Amino acid sequence: MKLEYSSVLQPYLSTITRATVGRLTLAAITVLLALAFASCAKKVPVAKTAPPPPLPPLPTATLAASPDAVERGQSVRLTWDTQNADSISISGVGSVAAKGSTAVTPDSSITYILTAKGPGGLKESSARVTVNNPPPRAMSEPGAGDERLFSQNVHDVFFDYDKSAVRAQEESVVEQDARFLTAHPNYRLVISGHCDERGSEDYNLALGDNRATTVRDQLERLGVSADHIRTISYGKEKPFCTEETEACWQLNRRAHFSLQR
């Protein structure tokens, strides 16, 4: 029975198989042709995006002061170093090179600021300097050498009769005295006013006081410290000459300088 069934259907199966194979072959050829045409089509290039340029580097800056504490009048050395900057300046100094050092003498405590500017931005650095007042010098008792130096350089001022104004020809004497005293600030002095013997004692004491005060005020205007000067009047009590002549009286009309002990 099985053999009869196979023999009967065999022609039909062969026909079906040939038709199926033909259809499958045609489909495969169609697909291959489509792929071939697709591979031959012109490809459109894709534009590449360039990476952004790198950012410019940030500036660097360092500033140091040595020493960082001084007494007034002493110098300080500033030292600095910068990179990646094309504009560099220090406050109180001005424009400077990228690297270097300079000496400064500040009058008071100050903070120096280094500013470095470049394409990448701005950078600052600072250095603080403390300025101290020098300690007062100890005042020593004047010795024989000081007395001699003082008497050689500080000269008395003479006055006209019954006058307390400094005469024109005595102005240069006061100026010379002032120059010496300002150059020797450790000296303290006494200005004593003197008169000739004419007139009452009270009148001459007042006149002598006016003469000493006039010279003191003029020295102060010329730069001598006021707290280094003391005045006193002797009137006609301590004459430098005792003869009753005009030349002798002239010697007694004076403001006399002495070194204070």
Can you give me a brief rundown of this structure?
With 261 residues, the chain is of the alpha+beta class. It has helices at 2-40, 144-153, 171-183, 201-221, 246-252, and strands at 60-66, 69-71, 76-83, 87-90, 94-95, 99-104, 110-118, 121-132, 157-158, 189-194, 229-235, 254-259. The chain folds into two domains: 60-132, Sandwich (Immunoglobulin-like); 144-259, 2-Layer Sandwich (60s Ribosomal Protein L30, Chain: A), CATH 3.30.1330.60.
Which characteristics define this entry?
4-stranded mixed beta sheet, 60s Ribosomal Protein L30, Chain: A, Immunoglobulin-like, single chain, alpha+beta, disordered N terminus, 28% strand, 2 domains, 5-stranded mixed beta sheet, 261 residues
Q: Can you characterise this structure?
A:
There is one protein chain. The chain has 261 residues and is an alpha+beta fold. It folds into 2 domains: 73 residues, Sandwich (Immunoglobulin-like), CATH 2.60.40; 116 residues, 60s Ribosomal Protein L30, Chain: A (2-Layer Sandwich). It is 34% helix and 28% strand. It is built from 5 helices and 12 strands. A 5-stranded mixed sheet has the order 2-8-7-4-5, with no helix packed on it. Strands 9-12-10-11 form a 4-stranded mixed sheet. Strands 1-3-6 form a 3-stranded antiparallel sheet, with no helix packed on it. Strand 7 and strand 8 form a beta hairpin. The N terminus is likely disordered.
